[in-house]
Amino acid sequence: MRELRVELEERSYPIYIGEGLLNETGAMFEKHGITAKSPVLIISDENTAGLYLRRVEDALKQKGYRTASYSVPAGEQSKTLALLQDAVTVALEAGLDRSSTVIALGGGVVGDLAGFVAATYMRGIRFVQIPTTILAHDSSVGGKVAVNHPLAKNIIGAFHQPDFVLYDIDTLKTLPIREVRAGLSEVIKHGLIWNEDFAYWCEANASKLLALDSEALIYALYEGCKVKSIVVSQDERENDLRAILNLGHTIGHALEAVAGYGELLHGEAIAIGMIGAARISVKMGQPQDVLTVTERIFNAFGLRTAIPAHLDTDSIMSAMMHDKKFKEGTMVFILPKAIGKVEIHKDVPISLVKETVDFLKQEG
Amino acid sequence: MRELRVELEERSYPIYIGEGLLNETGAMFEKHGITAKSPVLIISDENTAGLYLRRVEDALKQKGYRTASYSVPAGEQSKTLALLQDAVTVALEAGLDRSSTVIALGGGVVGDLAGFVAATYMRGIRFVQIPTTILAHDSSVGGKVAVNHPLAKNIIGAFHQPDFVLYDIDTLKTLPIREVRAGLSEVIKHGLIWNEDFAYWCEANASKLLALDSEALIYALYEGCKVKSIVVSQDERENDLRAILNLGHTIGHALEAVAGYGELLHGEAIAIGMIGAARISVKMGQPQDVLTVTERIFNAFGLRTAIPAHLDTDSIMSAMMHDKKFKEGTMVFILPKAIGKVEIHKDVPISLVKETVDFLKQEG
Ligand SMILES: NC(=O)c1ccc[n+]([C@@H]2O[C@H](COP(=O)([O-])OP(=O)(O)OC[C@H]3O[C@@H](n4cnc5c(N)ncnc54)[C@H](O)[C@@H]3O)[C@@H](O)[C@H]2O)c1
Ligand SMILES: NC(=O)c1ccc[n+]([C@@H]2O[C@H](COP(=O)([O-])OP(=O)(O)OC[C@H]3O[C@@H](n4cnc5c(N)ncnc54)[C@H](O)[C@@H]3O)[C@@H](O)[C@H]2O)c1
Ligand SMILES: [Zn+2]
Ligand SMILES: [Zn+2]
To answer: In the CATH scheme, what architecture does the domain A2-173 have?
Structure first.
């Protein structure tokens, strides 16, 4: 088991990454001084509930904790205020009090919803994350929690740091391979924005990672979380530096929106977005390497690097416009300067972005 | 105009109390460095919208601020997640961004709802309170914001401090007298828990306050807010000291619940609760004065000091039980030791509480 400390002053917390950790849930609760007098609410989704809920409940019961559970349908459409209210119904009926804890047992969807429940129930109670997807390594650092509004994703939320994160990589064995691959895209992103060695390590270990080799996976999740935690420690409330985490996300979000959520997973969309950012960067004068290496890495993971041809360029452009990073013919973009280094550019010509989108479609 | 600073480290903020302040809204926004580039959302209720919205909008427009507005039905039933979602719809359509501000123009209901919108929109934006009730002097200090759940009041919320509070006492002139009287009950509470001189001053100035004499009102709101701010500064997240603010609230909440919200206003219920606490205190050995003076003060304001006779004692008791401050035949109570001083008692016999409730009913 490896342990990473996310440094956020009095809100600092550890991330435990290893095998067989679900069975340690109760012991970890004790270690973190969580009282057994107050009930614990475990929030999961229909997939993670069936697979892992019982194990977590048992581990808690063994140490004398009382639990209640609430499970939502799988998928993004569960991040709503309506389900937050339902979760609170369960919390109230189970008698959760101000010393209680909410556990998120699942991927980023469950993490965001359960985290927002913990942030707002009685104006904030303890929160423990048990991520069960690779993508959730990202959401396990930074304390961003939220639900969606019919008109905008993640628009209603809070910053609420967990007490600790228990990352049992055994749970990843049941994850569909497409989710594994897409989740790794966000791991690679952490290499690309901050850590050249790690980015190259990812390329070299692509097949091990896709095969969920334990040692490689623990290392990759550790390094991925570490990059994010360094960035977040320096900018907890997203004022400035934290923007670099959005490498690939400007184009990626537009692709997700136009494709309709579902055709492209988030990780798949931002992989293409990172290729787009690298191409723009090269066109603006960075060495060709930035693009070729980025492409090589994503190819090693079998992540597609081209935009599905049937997506309309104008729709993609106007989805980006909607993101409101545009200003007088230019827009703000996070661009790679080299592998492991990015810069915020406020002056990327819209015409160049459009040209890039068009080019990436012909590739497809 | 008087100014009180609520000391909460980097979340400190001023409360401006005076006449004609609504017209200064725009100037105050400028003074607080709020950008005119981002739109402002004004949340009000059907009463305050009709009376004061236009004035606030004009004052902001004069200084170049763009505004949007959202108004909810008057009353407690507007503190819901559904209306929070509606408010966010308006915020999104008006283009509110991370530099935008939400204004609460109204009493405690609007303050709690708008504050929770500000706390959660894009994970927290600026918040300005323009309280228009006397009771809202209480909610303007401390940063507690929340909505209700069908099973529990104020159970979903956050701590979110305003940038500043603009308390225009002219708005109180349209407040129904019953609301004035009930709001003053919470002002008196602040004297009773912390400031003997102020408690006696309230008694001596009861008729001036009920007549909304400007000088008296500004002084009373200032002193009331000051007590609360001292307590909150020492205990922002309600760990301990802050509990003393609940003088009268254990019995008061039970009466509100049993009477059905509406028969007794919050301020009316806690006035009776404070009489109850004083009576329990005397029975437990404090000097008789604590009770006689407390009664005298509330009498001076025409606030009823007895429980409506038709309310069932057992129902009141079980509503208190529901509050879960009970433990093996005793319960936790905030009790006055003297005028201007309270203590937390963890060992008040339930039998004494019941006897007190019964006694207060015979008084009625
Ligand atoms: N808070 C943050 O900082 C942050 C960061 C990144 C992403 N997110 C959010 O995360 C969400 C996406 O996360 P995600 O990709 O984990 O999605 P997800 O939670 O929907 O999980 C993806 C799918 O895998 C299933 N699943 C999860 N774990 C499984 C397991 N171990 N075995 C089998 N199936 C499993 C889920 O039921 C779901 O169907 C988005 O809502 C996004 O906004 C948040
Ligand atoms: N956040 C806190 O710390 C805190 C503290 C105390 C109370 N509260 C909350 O405050 C709420 C009660 O506040 P309230 O008593 O101000 O209730 P309220 O906001 O419902 O106002 C009472 C009534 O007066 C009307 N009104 C308001 N201003 C008016 C004006 N100037 N002229 C004419 N009518 C006017 C309202 O429309 C309403 O009908 C409760 O929901 C309570 O939970 C919160
Ligand atoms: Zn992402
Ligand atoms: Zn009160």
So the answer is: 3-Layer(aba) Sandwich (3.40)
Give the span between the Cα atoms of A268 and A134, in whole angstroms: 13
Residues with Cβ within 8 Å of A115's Cβ and at least 6 positions away in sequence, in order, are: A102, A104, A127, A129, A143, A144, A145, A158, A160, A162
What is the side-by-side order of every strand in the sheet holding A326-327?
A326-327, A330-338, A341-349
Q: Judging by DSSP bridges, how do beta strands B67-72 and B40-45 pair with one another?
A: parallel
Please say if B295 is a catalytic residue. Answer: no
Q: Is B239 exposed, middle or buried (0-12, 13-18, 19+ CB in 10 A)?
A: exposed
Size of interface A-B (CB pairs under 8 A): 71
Strands B164-168 and B13-18: parallel
pLDDT exceeds 80 at position B328: no
CB within 8 Å of A321: residues ≥ 6 apart: none
Tokens 């600790």 belong to which residue?
A164
CB B146 within 8 A of CB B154: yes
Q: Do residues B299 and B160 touch, judged by C-beta distance below 8 A?
A: no
Q: Is A228 labeled as catalytic in the residue annotation?
A: yes
Three-class SS state of B228: helix
pLDDT, tens only, A238-278: 778 889 999 999 999 999 999 986 799 999 999 999 999 99
| B258-290 pLDDT, tens digit each | 998 679 999 999 999 999 999 999 999 999 999
Mean pLDDT, range A299-327, rounded to an integer: 87
Q: Quote the DSSP letter at residue B51.
A: I
Residue closest to A275 by CA, chosen among A345, A359, A179:
A359
For domain B177-363, give the CATH superfamily.
Answer: Dehydroquinate synthase-like - alpha domain (1.20.1090.10)
Distance B186 CA to ligand 4 centre (A): 6
**B122-131 pLDDT per residue, tens:** 999 999 999 9
What DSSP element (H or E) covers A166? strand A164-168
Q: Are A43 and A114 in contact (CB under 8 A)?
A: yes
Ligand 4 center–CA B266 separation, angstroms: 7
Q: Is A45 in the pocket of ligand 1 (CB under 6 A)?
A: yes
**Helix, strand or coil, per DSSP, at residue A205:** coil
B335 touches chain A (CB under 8 A): no
Q: Where along chain B do its domains lie?
A: 2-173, 177-363
CA distance B238 to chain A (A): 10
How large is the angle between the packed helices A266-283 and A249-259, nearest 10 degrees? 130
Q: Tell whether A122 is within 8 A of chain B (Cβ).
A: yes
Q: Ligand 2 pocket by C-beta < 6 Å: which residues?
A: B 45, 47-48, 51, 74-76, 79, 106-110, 112, 132-133, 135-136, 138-139, 142, 144, 154, 171-172, 174-175, 179, 266
- Banded model confidence at residue A364, pLDDT cuts 50, 70, 90: low
A33: Cβ contacts below 8 Å, ≥ 6 apart: none
Round to whole Å and give the CA distance between B297 and B292: 9
Q: Tell me whether B119 touches chain A (CB under 8 Å).
A: yes
Do A124 and A202 meet the contact criterion of CB atoms below 8 Å apart?
Answer: no
Exposed/middle/buried for residue B314 (C-beta within 10 Å: 0-12, 13-18, 19+): exposed
Using alpha carbons, select from B191, B46, B20 the residue that is nearest to residue B106: B46
SS3 call for A168: strand
Q: Is the CB of residue A14 less than 8 Å from the CB of residue A6? A: yes
Contacts of range B320-325, beta carbons closer than 8 Å, 24 or more positions apart: B320/B250, B320/B251, B320/B253, B320/B254, B320/B353, B322/B257, B323/B250, B323/B253, B323/B254, B324/A97, B325/B250
Q: Are A41 and A69 in contact (CB under 8 A)?
A: yes
Comparing CA positions, the residue from A82, A75, A81 lying closest to residue A107 is A75
